[in-house]
Amino acid sequence: MPTSVPGNSRSGGVRAAQRGFTLIELLIVIAIVAISAGLVTLAIRDGYEVRLEEEGERLGALLEMARAEARVQGTAVIWVPSRGDASEVDPNVQFRFIGLSELQPMPTRWLDAGTHATVVGAPGVVLGPEAILPPQRIVLQLADKRLELASDGLGPFIVATP
Fold it and tell me: CA-CA distance, 81 to 92, in Å (whole number)?
């Protein structure tokens, strides 16, 4: 005589445990995976854009160091990007600081060799020794990405909004 005691495998009134997932559970998991993949895709940034921002931050810091040094020395310092043509004396120099002491060597190359800079409206950026300078802009370009650094003459060089 069958009883409903645990362990009795022949209990006809008790349904066997369901196995697998319901359709709703599967759809919820798929939706969570799709949303997560979309967020990760949006979070991944373009490599050129990231490298260009690094170049901009680095150049801004270098310009501020040179500006401070120009004020301390009381001499004019000018930052000049290379034109990239055959008239350049040293093709390995991508930019230079004119007027700084030889005791304080500054970098002369970009972190990424494909980076190019153009000073808007002038051949170079004047960095001192005056405390108030004219407003100046620099356009950095890497592949098809562009970034502008600007100073109003009083403050530091910052990334300008387009």
Answer: 12
CA–CA gap between residue 146 and residue 68 (Å, rounded): 27
Tokens 């972190």 identify what position? Answer: 111
- Which residue is it, tokens 């310009």? 63
> What is the tens place of the pLDDT at every residue in 46-68?
788 889 999 999 999 999 999 99
CATH of residue 79: 3.55.40.10
Classify residue 153: in a domain, yes or no: yes
Phi-psi region of 104 (alpha: psi -120 to 50; beta: other; left: phi over 0): beta
User: Length of the chain, please?
Assistant: 162
Residues 6+ apart with CB under 8 A from 94: 81, 82, 108, 109, 110, 113, 115
Domain assignment of residue 125, yes or no: yes
Residue 41 lies in a domain: no
Residue 140: give the domain boundaries.
47-160
Total number of domains constituting the chain:
1
Does some domain include residue 42? no
pLDDT, tens digit, 9 for 90 and up, residues 58-101: 999 999 999 999 999 899 999 999 976 655 567 789 999 999 88
